[in-house]
């Protein structure tokens, strides 16, 4: 039974998240239904990261097993043909060995968060940015972000419903830069807790607005108290932009 790796992008606005839901439309459901239509039977796809409702992806990675071999360009093109008009596209398809697992083989995940920092609301990027109309100091946000790097208990930024066995994670990257009216937060780690990125961004926003010092952001982390976390940044500003795998599996 051949195994395929797909790179998928999607606009998460209209979906209830990646994972199949009892009633609401999900990205997983859209992709599984599209592939099932051309292979002639049900399929199950497994992803690298289960994104929340409203979260986007430019580089989600999934794997699936099919009953017979297919050309990889056929898998890509047929999936896309049956996905229309869903805002989901298969960017690449490749055949991988049975040891490849989109989730468990991943060694790092990369996310980007976009903040539109201007007085006027967005017209063209609505649903893809967090509009913050008051002035933010991106340099101060970056300074605070560096105090969160490393291996820590991230309970302060963890959703109450998070099902991870441990709140300890190793944060490899958390960079904040400004490009014109946008503030971009890029982060990377092997794995993240549920709502961790959005919680960190909301807390960094407080630092950028002068409501927390950089040390104050670190104090939130050290408190392990999620009631001290800043506002949860809206899901629409968040995009999964990359997943890394060992060279012998990618």
Task: Explain what you see.
The protein is an alpha+beta fold. The protein is 23% helix and 28% strand. It is built from 5 helices and 10 strands, in the order βαββαβββαβββααβ. Strands 1, 2, 3, 4, 5, 6, 7, 8, 9 and 10 form a 10-stranded mixed sheet that branches. Helix 1 crosses helix 2 (72-83) and helix 3 (138-146) packs across helix 5. The chain is globular and about 60 Å long. The model has no long low-confidence stretch (mean pLDDT 96).
Key phrases:
single chain, alpha+beta, Alpha-Beta Plaits, 23% helix, globular, tRNA pseudouridine synthase A, EC 5.4.99.12, tRNA processing, PsdUridine_synth_TruA_C
List the topology elements:
Blueprint (H helix, E strand, L loop, with lengths): L2 E8 L16 H13 L6 E2 L8 E10 L6 H12 L4 E9 L11 E9 L13 E2 L6 H9 L3 E4 L14 E12 L2 E8 L6 H13 L5 H10 L14 E7 L6
Parallel strand pairs: 3-10, 5-6
Antiparallel strand pairs: 1-3, 1-4, 2-3, 5-9, 5-10, 7-8, 8-9
Subunit structure: Homodimer.
Organism: Methylobacterium variabile
GO molecular function: RNA binding; tRNA pseudouridine(38-40) synthase activity
Q: Which consecutive residue ranges, at least 5 long each, have pLDDT under 50?
A: none
C-alpha-based Rg, rounded:
19 Å
CATH superfamily of the largest domain: Pseudouridine synthase I, catalytic domain, C-terminal subdomain
* Count of DSSP-assigned helices: 5
Q: What's the β-strand tally?
A: 10
User: Regarding CATH, which class of the largest domain?
Assistant: Alpha Beta
Query: Could you please say which CATH topology of the largest domain applies here?
Result: Alpha-Beta Plaits
Q: How would a crystallographer describe the biggest sheet?
A: 10 strands, mixed
Strand content: 25-35%
Helix content: 10-25%
Alpha-beta content class: alpha+beta
Bulk shape: globular
Distance between the termini: 19 Å
- The CATH architecture of the largest domain is 2-Layer Sandwich
Helix/strand order: EHEEHEEEHEEEHHE
Average pLDDT rating: 96
| Number of discrete domains | 2
């Amino acid at each position: 039974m051949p195994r395929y790796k797909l790179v998928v992008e999607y606009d998460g606005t209209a979906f209830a998240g990646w994972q199949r839901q009892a009633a609401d439309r999900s990205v997983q459901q859209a992709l599984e239904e599209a592939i099932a239509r051309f292979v002639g039977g049900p399929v199950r796809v497994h992803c690298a990261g289960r994104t929340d409702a409203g979260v986007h992806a430019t580089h989600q990675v999934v794997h699936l097993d099919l009953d017979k071999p297919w050309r990889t360009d056929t898998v890509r093109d047929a999936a896309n043909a049956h996905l229309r008009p869903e805002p989901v596209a298969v960017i690449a398809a490749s055949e991988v060995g049975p040891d490849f697992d989109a989730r468990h083989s991943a060694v790092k995940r990369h996310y980007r968060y976009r903040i539109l920092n201007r007085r006027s609301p967005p017209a063209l990027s609505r649903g893809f940015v967090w509009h913050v109309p008051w002035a933010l100091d991106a340099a101060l946000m970056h300074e605070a972000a560096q105090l969160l790097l490393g291996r820590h208990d991230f309970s302060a930024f963890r959703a109450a419903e998070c099902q991870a066995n441990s709140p300890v994670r190793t944060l490899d990257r958390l960079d904040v830069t400004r490009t014109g009216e946008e503030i971009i937060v890029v982060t990377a780690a092997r794995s993240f807790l549920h709502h961790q990125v959005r919680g960190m961004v909301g807390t960094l926003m407080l630092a950028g607005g002068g409501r927390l010092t950089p040390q104050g952001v670190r104090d939130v982390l050290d408190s392990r108290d999620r009631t001290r976390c800043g506002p949860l940044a809206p899901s629409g500003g968040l995009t999964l932009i990359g997943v890394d795998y060992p060279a012998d599996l990618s």
